Amino acid sequence: ETGVTQTPRHLVMGMTNKKSLKCEQHLGHNAMYWYKQSAKKPLELMFVYNFKEQTENNSVPSRFSPECPNSSHLFLHLHTLQPEDSALYLCASSQEGDLAEPNTEAFFGQGTRLTVV
Amino acid sequence: AQKVTQAQTEISVVEKEDVTLDCVYETRDTTYYLFWYKQPPSGELVFLIRRNSFDEQNEISGRYSWNFQKSTSSFNFTITASQVVDSAVYFCALSEVYTGANSKLTFGKGITLSVRP
Does B109 touch chain A (CB under 8 A)? Predict the structure, then answer.
């Protein structure tokens, strides 16, 4: 069982819908991340939260809105998405936001497969 | 700018063959970290190894070994005596290191490895 849980695993939504992706980690980590994995493209970092504060927004369109109410939970609110937003959205967490710290690596969830129709 | 290139996109081998996955990176930083992750069909990325830029010693872990060559900016991954369970997408990644501890991973496009019985 992964320490990072994402729900739902699959989501199909219309371009006018509003939906949310949820990520929960039970590892006691302080940093959480959203990544986007599109077909034939590298994983793209979207957002980083460190101790509940957003510390990175990688030029993500405003139709993606993250929320981190506490260190264990991370949401990605979606509205008026485009078909090109269809992808696997991966959540990750790490002990610290600094992956250079000893014994710090990112643990990933299984992802939400999003299809925008 | 950071960049990770995994020139091989798909590799297919027969069980028990050795296979090497190539990774070439670009960075202007003198301090950086390199990672390999495995993504099985279930979706989550599984951490395999982290190596810092000052440690060029090769590493072996069971059937896995890594060859880090700073002179050629490469961090190649070899699986010895491959098994069907090794079938997955393998990602090489590079981490930038920010002062104040908020590093992020730059991923390659991944290599799909299929191991046939």
Answer: yes
pLDDT in tens, B5-59: 999 999 999 999 999 999 999 998 888 889 999 999 888 889 899 888 888 888 8
Closest chain A residue to the Cα of B98, Cα to Cα = A98
User: What percent of chain B shows pLDDT beyond 90?
Assistant: 62
State how far the alpha carbon of A30 is from the alpha carbons of A23, A36, A103, B18, B26, in Å: 14, 20, 14, 39, 29
B11, exposed or middle or buried, with CB in 10 Å at 0-12, 13-18, 19+? middle
Cβ atoms B33, B50 nearer than 8 A: yes
CB contact under 8 A, A42 and B107: yes
- Residue in chain B closest to A4 (alpha carbons) equals B44
B108 in contact with chain A, both atoms CB, cutoff 8 A: yes
Size of interface A-B (CB pairs under 8 A): 75
Q: Do A42 and B95 touch (CB under 8 A)?
A: no
Q: How far apart are CA A92 and CA A70, in angstroms?
A: 15
Residue A98 contacts B, CB cutoff 8 Å: yes
Per-residue pLDDT at A104: 63
Transcribe B12-72 into DSSP letters. Answer: EEETT--EEE--EEE-S-SS-EEEEEEE-TT---EEEEEEETT----EEETTEEEEEEGGG
